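Late entry, evening session. Most of the bench is empty. Finally got around to the prediction I had been postponing all week. Sequence below, unchanged from the version circulated by S.P.
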Amino acid sequence: TENALSQVIGSTKLISNLRKLNEMRAKETETRSIELLPVFQDAVDSVRTLFPTKRQKIESNIAEGDTQVKANELLVDVFINLLGNAVKFDRHDVVKVDVNISEAEDNFWKIEVKDRGPGIDDSRKEAIFDRYESGVPSESGSGLGLTLVKYIIESYGGKTWVEDRVEGEWEKGSNFVFLIPRGGD
């Protein structure tokens, strides 16, 4: 029954992601200045609900009242997809994910989501964000989650990519990075 429930949740997520992608393509994205921490905390709570049997240690340096971004309600989907993938693909007894924020150039925040999962080899790093466009099959899941992440971040005027968590050792986990405009100015 757990496998059947997982398939239903996966199908629901696929439909939701397709709907969001189509809506984003159909209209220009409106953004406003929002506080990052509550969005991040909502995503962490959602991921804990999606994977109740996995022990998760998600740590962050995002502080309350400290970080405003120019975004909208879809930002929670960015975190849910990145954190959810980190939890889903990690085979350790305790899944550990570090989320770090730092200042970047040109009035952007740099956010890094570092996992300890199986990693992504260099030949696949760019393609994982474009599965919807390229038709590259996903090894598990619909492959649309990271495409949605890319579309959302780009709709804010930002950029996203993936690196090795440990430089040059892709099998030690991934570091998903995105730049998002600062808010509150």
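Two things to note before I forget:
The longest strand covers residues 94-104.
The chain is about 40% helix and 25% strand.
Will write this up properly tomorrow.
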